[in-house]
Write a structure and sequence with these properties.
single chain, mainly beta, Jelly Rolls, five-stranded antiparallel beta sheet, three-stranded antiparallel beta sheet, 9% helix
Length: 113
Amino acid sequence: MPTGNLFADAVPPQVGERFEMLLQHRNLVVERIVSSAAITPCEYVQPQDEWVLLAQGEALLQVAGKPVSLKSGDYLFLPAGVPHSVAQVSEGAIWLTVHLYPEQAAAADSADA
């Protein structure tokens, strides 16, 4: 069984965010995101539910048009279809995200692999 460390090799990119898949199992995907403070906000409206933990840093999100401030250790559940974006984030912020896809979407992704 492979192991890892969430904080290893966590140098932020110069601009934007770096997404790394840590686990994919059936309709579940776990990712680590490392953020640069130099981001351009991008709105996401996803077909899957997402649970987000800000493991390190601070961030200001827009969730369904409302500001949500997060600091290290804070987490948030984003149901499928809820518009959200990162408005501001501290340099080197580390996120852990858990995506739960609908069963049929996961089955289709497996068939393509």
